[in-house]
Amino acid sequence: MSAQNIAGLDRLFRPRSIAVVGASASESKVGYQLVDALRGFDGQVFPINPKATQIAGRQSYPQLSALPVVPDLVLLGVPANACVDALTEAARIGVGGAVIVGGGFAESGPDGAALQAQIERVCKGSSLRLLGPNTSGYTRPGTGCHACFLPTVQQFAAGPLSIVAQSGGVNLTLALLAHRQRLGIRLAVGLGNAVDVDAADVIEYLAHDPQTKMIGLHLEGVAEGRRLYDVLSHATTLKPVIVLPVGRAQVADFAQSHTGNLMGQHAVTVAALRQAGAIVVDATQSLVDAAVGFLGGRIAPKANPGVGIVTGQAGPGLIILDALRSAAVNVPTLAPATVAEISKHLPPLTYLQNPIDTGRPSPLFADVMVAASRDPAIDAIITFALDEPAAIDAVAVFERARKDIKQPLVFATLGLEGSVDVTQNKLQSRDIPALESPERGAVAVRALVDDAKAQYRRLITTRTVAAAGRVIARALDEASAKALLAEFGIRSPRSRSCRNEEEAVTAFDQLDKPVVVKVLDPRIAHKTEVGGVHLGVRTADQLSAALQKIDAIPGDISDRGYLIEEMASSGIDLILGARRDPSFGATVLLGLGGTEAEALKDVSIRLAPLDRVDVEEMLRELRGSALLDGWRGAPAVDRDAIIDAVVAVADLMEAAADLRELDINPLRCTSKGVQALDALMIWSD
Amino acid sequence: MSAQNIAGLDRLFRPRSIAVVGASASESKVGYQLVDALRGFDGQVFPINPKATQIAGRQSYPQLSALPVVPDLVLLGVPANACVDALTEAARIGVGGAVIVGGGFAESGPDGAALQAQIERVCKGSSLRLLGPNTSGYTRPGTGCHACFLPTVQQFAAGPLSIVAQSGGVNLTLALLAHRQRLGIRLAVGLGNAVDVDAADVIEYLAHDPQTKMIGLHLEGVAEGRRLYDVLSHATTLKPVIVLPVGRAQVADFAQSHTGNLMGQHAVTVAALRQAGAIVVDATQSLVDAAVGFLGGRIAPKANPGVGIVTGQAGPGLIILDALRSAAVNVPTLAPATVAEISKHLPPLTYLQNPIDTGRPSPLFADVMVAASRDPAIDAIITFALDEPAAIDAVAVFERARKDIKQPLVFATLGLEGSVDVTQNKLQSRDIPALESPERGAVAVRALVDDAKAQYRRLITTRTVAAAGRVIARALDEASAKALLAEFGIRSPRSRSCRNEEEAVTAFDQLDKPVVVKVLDPRIAHKTEVGGVHLGVRTADQLSAALQKIDAIPGDISDRGYLIEEMASSGIDLILGARRDPSFGATVLLGLGGTEAEALKDVSIRLAPLDRVDVEEMLRELRGSALLDGWRGAPAVDRDAIIDAVVAVADLMEAAADLRELDINPLRCTSKGVQALDALMIWSD
Predict the structure, then answer these.
(1) Is B32 within 8 Å of B225 (Cβ atoms)?
(2) Same domain, yes or no, for B603 and B558?
(3) What is the pLDDT of residues A342-360, one digit of tens each?
(4) A353 in contact with B, Cβ within 8 Å
(5) What percent of chain A has pLDDT over 70?
């Protein structure tokens, strides 16, 4: 599939010949603009028009089948209802790719959806790859191949960034921001309705494109999340991928179980993207700023890379420090030897720690940067100086520094147009990113650091499914759910499952008091609400009262029994849940338990399967993680046992394909281990 | 003070004559650059140099006292150790203001601190106002008055934005970003070490400057927070103030080295700024983007203003919607009549709700915007369109729309340099903000909305101190603290304060069981940790055991007694605390109680005194506020009682000047009211 996808997309995105169906001689029409946009294209262009002989200076043909060659690509500039026939004809003669820029399909109502279903059928029945409909198309500045009618794209320069955007408008937005940042574009694709070619397809294609050095991805929603996750997981081993997922504000979907409530779709998407090694940003400008940071390459994989800050002005340096520390980026203290070396190059009274404040910008910046780069704790350097050509020649400084520094460098600056632009151009042509503001510089260096952390995580992670292939019997009530969890190593307090009062009395005698008495009934999912849970039962009388109350719960009691269970010792409660996301597949959620914490939604989410390293990171992500480390003098809980339990739940989700939802709430954590105090499983119909 | 401050700063910031002490004929020296920077100044300039006769084309004088007039302003271009004498001389002859740009003062160590103390004494003993030391000075493009040696400032255009920055480097950063945004500058001030003139002084001055339309403020730490709060509270009634407070992360070490200021508690600073009606941003670019949003004026005060989004491209429109909704900005559904009106101007199949997606940019934008503006729910409109001169003339569209629309408008766009710049220039000269990216447009419109909300809050708020002037006796143990709280209307469960076992037994008989038995001892602040709290005491034997354990707590027992208190019914626990911040004065904290929530630090902070409106907002700020509204079927708690209690605590802090800290933890909240279950008060020595 992969090699076939790449070859197919190569005809779509790197055509030698292009036909434009619906070509027009009228300059105001899309059919003209599409032909005109190809004026710099270095291959053949064939306008198709039943009547014309010449369009935009090129010989025109009446129909696709009249062409002297089968074109690699066809651009459809005809209305929605004419697209089906044109696309069918293109597929028939063996065209490689097609782009439908126009709208009027699924986004516009039932009639459009019917048309879209028809073009989808055409695509499924052929090897032709379709981009769109309802997109601004794509642009490839290196070959002048602009399958896009907006004149702006003619100005774009070729370069290392490729863009994939769900929206054609955002594709152009990102491309323009890259252009303004003087970051050239290899390929920029707007997916539109994505009837055939989708984000995963293009990412896979770009991962294997040697000239694409970094990939920017814009997502509005993810239909086949697991496939995208798999493709991204591979792509990020080859080059950095920066993703802007829109939809923070979307209301969480209201699933049945409450772990479903905690797990909003956007949170799952962000977790999956990070887990796949992508860098997640929250603004179009940040995507471009993160991308340009990789001009000089990636930081080698490392658990916690350190950043050195060199600044000519203390205030902006402080802003960079604040931005990096707020994003959990390590700005380490420099070694005494480093400080001693730096102090040789600077006047006294300057701050020589990290940040290194030079007091004023000066040519000595290069020496300071080189000295800082020799500190073993420094994996990247960000330097800030206002653009003052009279005080500092930034290009000369960085050229000199670059020779002696292996680590990535980022220059943050600010100045007057016409002056700072020249500096930026020169530096970036030497692969040194130059960004205009302290915060934008911080975004770039943070992306380098996040990428190195993600690569490191991958190196030390193996996500194997221990229980793969194992046959799992459906657990329908709490007792059998706990038994199944026990098979996966997650213990519960000692208990007895009882069918009647006699068995309950016997069980009560055998267990340590107090016990909890619960209803066992596969029809009752929410036991507490109906009076099916009785805590702190110490005496025979209390037991008898509890059993009577359980018997009094309305409903069919033919399958009803009792669970008599020892009370667990106190500790910290977590929620451990899992569910099968319709897009991303098996997901695991770990959160802080207790009423207040649930209201605060302090949770971390991952896709299954999981490695222990993943779970360590999940624990760090919990805002309330300090509770686990010995809060206010309490003993620290057994983190290893928590990690085992979370990995086991991921494993169970992988092994039991028909397990739809799983909810351990609470998972009681103490210094001696963890126990599932309640367990609910929901199976597919 | 105010009128005097304004008059004094007017001589500093609007001088008619300027002397430069340390003027030099050598172009590489600051003493030359300071004179040269005044080449466009429309007043008198006097270089001071004992030897020269002519500097930078101007007649030079040997000393200040030799000048033909007493200058309004003196710029000191001499080393730190020469500044004391020069400043003393300036003060003696009646100079109005001085600027020390150089460093070498408190930021550089003990010797510099001593010099700084000397110049501080000179300022205190005269009416001269000093800016600096250790600053880039200030720039005032309208009069060519650049008390700043950086050549860049010569390019700045005059306009409506004034800037006050703690750091000289950030002052220039903000001014350059404003310049790049084509937003002109009225006055841009870098405070540096702020020996005399501080942020509050300049804000007060700018509040009364008619040409300053919006104020941008950068803070690294706040020494006199309460004064700044008071000044800002007034300034924001007159014009919008946008603040960038640095210090989210732990950056205090470096900050201290840089301006000599101690970094305040960031959460308190942010709370105080918002409470004062300022708009808080987290990046330099955002400060400028928020400021430019006010070019067309403010939104009238309103509880929850609505924003209309008109977009030529759906994807960027969705990004704007997401950014606004994430920031709790109301993007309301349009009225059916509005949709009907809009539909007249657009082709079918477009999305006519909010956002209004026009499908493609077109001249019809103006009609759509006008129709949207007539919807009563719409208080501001943001329009996005990529810069496509062939498809849309944005200037013509907005000129037409502006005529019929009263609400503020924001244009978000993106295009090629040289094209979009022209549009931006033309629109902004017509007071229509134009920002380059969807998110930057969202920042501008969000600022308009946040400002209108803050103004509205002020209109409906009266922060009076009900207990002002009342004499408060110090409460030293829990019983007396609860008695004092009761005087302020905050009840506790029924209890008896007992000196000995006999009284305890009597009290136990009189109270409803179970009770809690606690140690009463002003020397014991943390009762639970030493075994001084015994819950659920139901029998005489349990009482006796509890009393014995309390007696066994080590230490002097001469003042020790018992508090016997009825157990409260269950509910939601809050933490209600107050403390006297060294910078901001009395602060009140409301947070979610319980171990987990405390670890999650879900708190809201305000300065006392408080209005009920403030507390309603504090409750909304709590991430876990849903717990109060009937969580999972529980009855909603009595919000009014919570609000009463918080207002009362603020009142108590205002009334009892020697009450340093107060801690009600927990404040038990039920549907029937609130009760302080524990209370701790710490008084000043």
Answers:
(1) no
(2) no
(3) 999 887 766 778 999 987 7
(4) yes
(5) 97
Min Cα–Cα distance to chain B from A417, Å: 7
Cα–Cα distance, B215 to B139 (Å, whole number): 15
If asked whether residues A545 and A581 sit together in one domain, one would say: no
Residue A109, Ramachandran bin (φ over 0: left; ψ between -120 and 50: alpha; else beta): left
CB contact under 8 A, B180 and A247: no
- Residue A252, pLDDT > 60, answer no
The total domain count for chain B is 5
Q: Which of residues 632-651 of A touch B (CB under 8 A)?
A: 632-633
CB within 8 A of A452, min separation 6: which ones?
A: A298, A299, A300, A301, A302, A305, A379
> pLDDT-based confidence at B362, cuts 50/70/90?
confident
CATH (domain of B616): 3.30.470.20
Query: What mean pLDDT do residues A103-129 have?
Result: 92
| Cα distances (Å, whole numbers) of residue A655 to A479, A618, A663, A667, B286 | 20, 22, 16, 21, 49
Cα–Cα distance for residue pair A370/A354, rounded to 1 Å: 14
Same domain for B338 and B213, yes or no, is: no
Write b or e for each residue in B30-55: b if 16 or more Cβ atoms lie within 10 A of its Cβ, otherwise e: bbbbbbbbbeebebbbbbbbeebeeb
Residue A548 tokens, joined: 């009577």
Q: Do A627 and B599 touch (CB under 8 A)?
A: yes
Last residue of a domain, one of B255, B290, B325: B290
| Residue at B78 is within a domain | yes
Cα angle: B517, vertex B641, B566; to 5 degrees = 15
- Token pair listed for A456: 């490191």
Angle at A467 between CA A462 and CA A468, to 5 degrees: 80
pLDDT in tens, B244-298: 999 887 766 655 554 444 334 888 999 999 999 999 999 999 999 999 999 999 9
Residues in A 20-79 with any Cβ partner in B closer than 8 A: none
The residues in A 217-276 lying below 8 A from B, measured between CB atoms, are 218, 220, 246-250
H or E stretch covering B666: strand B659-670
B533 near B527, Cβ under 8 Å? yes
pLDDT tens column, A167-190: 999 999 999 999 999 999 999 999
Given this model, what pLDDT does residue B257 score?
A: 52
What's the pLDDT band for B55 if we cut at 50, 70, 90? very high
Residue pair A658/A683 in contact by the 8 Å Cβ criterion: yes
Q: Is residue B484 part of a domain?
A: no
Is the bond preceding residue A133 a cis peptide, omega within 30 degrees?
yes
User: Is residue B338 one of the residues assigned to a domain?
Assistant: yes
Q: Is B2 on the interface with A (CB under 8 A)?
A: no
Contact A416 B152 (CB under 8 A): yes
Amino acid at A491: R
- Inform me whether the pLDDT recorded for A18 exceeds 50: yes
Cβ separation A179–B249 shorter than 8 A: no
Segments forming the whole domain that contains residue B165: 152-290
Strand A561-566 vs strand A495-498: parallel, antiparallel, or unpaired? antiparallel
In this predicted structure, what is the pLDDT of residue B593? 86
A77-105 burial, b if ≥16 CB within 10 A, otherwise e?
Answer: bbebeebbebbbbbbeeebbbbbbbbbbb
Q: How many angstroms separate the first and last alpha carbons of chain A?
A: 32
| Nearest chain B CA: its distance from A574 CA (Å) | 10
Residues B516 and B632 in one domain: no
CB–CB contact A388 B150 (8 Å): yes
Taking CB atoms and an 8 Å limit, are A597 and B596 in contact across chains? Answer: yes
**A57-91: per-residue pLDDT in tens?**
999 999 999 999 999 999 999 999 999 999 999 99
Best mutation target among A33, A526, A595 (most B Cβ atoms within 10 Å) is A595
Burial code (b: 16+ CB inside 10 Å, e: under 16) for A580-592 equals bbebbbbbbbbbb
